[in-house]
Amino acid sequence: MSFNLNALLRDNIKKLVPYSSARDEFKGEASVWLDANENAFGSPLSHDYNRYPDPLQHQLKHKLASIKGVPAENMFLGNGSDEAIDILYRAFCTPQVDNVILVPPTYGMYEVSANINDVAVKKVNLTANYQLDLDGIAEAIDPFTKLIFICSPNNPTGNSIHAQDIETILVNFPGIVVLDEAYINYSKHKSFTKALAEFPNLVILQTLSKAWGLAALRLGLAFASTEIIEVFNKIKPPYNINQATQDLVLEALDGVDIINEWIKATVAEREVLVAELAMLEQVEHITPSDANFVLVKLANPKGLYDYLAGQGVVVRDRSKVTLCEGCLRITVGTKTENKHLIKSIKTFYSNL
User: Fold this and answer.
1) Which NCBIfam families does the annotation name (predicted)?
2) What is the pTM of this model?
3) Which of 67, 91, 193, 322 is buried deepest, with most CB atoms within 10 A?
C-alpha cells in the first residue's frame, strides 16, 4: 500500500504554526545575550544553567548519530520514549474518531497515552508463543486505524518479534508502524534502523534508560523519515531536553566500551539466572528472552512476590496481565543480586 504522510496528519497539525523560541530565531555565537529574558547574572550552581538549551540538541544528536548509525536529521530526542509516544497520538489521531492497534501483552504506556488523548484502542493479542497474530491485525485495521504499536524485544515477555512479520505489516499497513526497541541492545537480532529508508511509515523508539544506565535522565529516541521528524519537532515543547541532561548524556556517550561490557555481562548473567530458575520444580516455564529480564511462570506467584518484597527483593508481578497469568518478571541483576534472589526463592518454596 502506498504511504501518504499528509493524509494521516490531523488537520490542526497541518495548520499548526510552531512556537518560535529565541534560540530558534538566532543561531550562532554571541558575547551578549539579551533576547530570551534570561537571568544575566548566572545561576546558584557550580555550572551556569541560566541560558536556555539548544531546542534541537544538535551536538547531542550528532554524537548519537555516530554511535547509532542514523543521521541526526532522522532523529528526535524526547523526555523519555513516553514523550515520543504522546506526540504520535497528537500528530496522527483525532480524538473520538481514530484508533490504534495494540498487541498485548505489551508496554502499558501505549494504552495509557491513548486514553489520555481520547483515542480508541483495538487489541489483538499475541499468539501463545508471543508472536504477532497477522490475520487478527489485518481484520482489526479499518480506515480510521492510524498507528500500530509493536514492542521488540517485547515487554513484559522478553522475546523478539519475528522480523518478517514486522515487515509484512510495514508493507501492507498504510498508517504508522511504531516499533519500540527499548531492549534492542540485549538482543541477538539487529535493529530495524537500517530499514528506515525502505519503510517511510516506520517509527523506531529506543531509549538510554536501559543498557546505557541513564534512566534518571529521561532521554528517549525516535528514528524516522525526515518528514516525520519534522512533525515531531513541530509539536514538541521548545526546550523539551534540559541542558543538564544534554551535558550528562554527552559525557556518558564517551563510555561506549563500558556499556558494551555491561551488556555482555548482563546477557551472561541472564543465562545463569535462567539455568538456576529452570532447576526449580516450582518453575513451569521461562520465556526465552532477548532483553535484560525474564518472564517466569511459577507456582504461587503472588505469594512469592510478597515474600521477596518482605526480604527487600523487588520483582514485577505480571500474573494478572493477559497471557502472562502466573508469571513474575525478573530483571537481571548483578551476580550477587541474582544469587540472593535464587536463595530467597528457594527459601520461600522450601517453607511451603
Assistant:
1) hisC
2) 0.96
3) 91
